[in-house]
Amino acid sequence: MDINLESLNWVIENKEKLEEQNVTIYYFSLTTCPHCKKGIKWLLERKVGFKWLYLDKLPLAMKNSLKKWIQAKYDLPTRMGTPFVIFRKNQKEFISNGYDPSYWASKI
């Protein structure tokens, strides 16, 4: 199974900046996750453009499919953490499986 990230129902933050910057950021979070909230705040404070969604607001089948797809596609050695962030830059992808602002800064 392959999932097209662009087809998901993203919330877009700083759309103008997202269109200008040379990286597309996909941010997966949970409504109950304090690290997810800190990560969104961190990105907003830096006026970074990004796309995000709450996994726990998706239909259960979609959430499970998406988590399985991420686990397989990115060959995660552990389960998918939150926030889970995909950085697409120059046709390459980098991931962060958890809150890691120093790593994020190196990818923005």
From TrEMBL:
SUPFAM superfamilies: Thioredoxin-like (SSF52833). Gene3D superfamilies: Glutaredoxin (3.40.30.10). InterPro entries: Thioredoxin-like_sf (IPR036249). It comes from the Archaea. This is Glutaredoxin domain-containing protein. It comes from Promethearchaeum syntrophicum.
